[in-house]
Amino acid sequence: MIRVDLPAHLRTLSGVKGEVTLDVAGPVTQRSVLDALEAKYPTLQGTIRDHGTLKRRSFLRFFACEEDLSHESPDALLPEAVANGKEPLLIIGAVAGG
Prior knowledge:
About 20% of the residues lie in helices and about 20% in strands. The chain contains three helices and five strands, in the order βαβαββαβ. The protein is globular and about 35 Å long.
């Protein structure tokens, strides 16, 4: 089971409380996890990734095992601790302003 921690606004949109768990078939990558997340919670389609390009939305960041994975390839393998469920993939809303 893959664990995903969503920011509050996406938990509200998807109707979940707390961490989400997903079954991911095949290699555990950002793409495979987000595909599984959007399949389980269709209301999240287009909120984390752009509908057309499937690129990460600018004000969301991906973290795992104390590393920023936001600029990694969507097809790069996630850390083993995420793949085996010991650590969650964190999706965090970026803070911006002036």
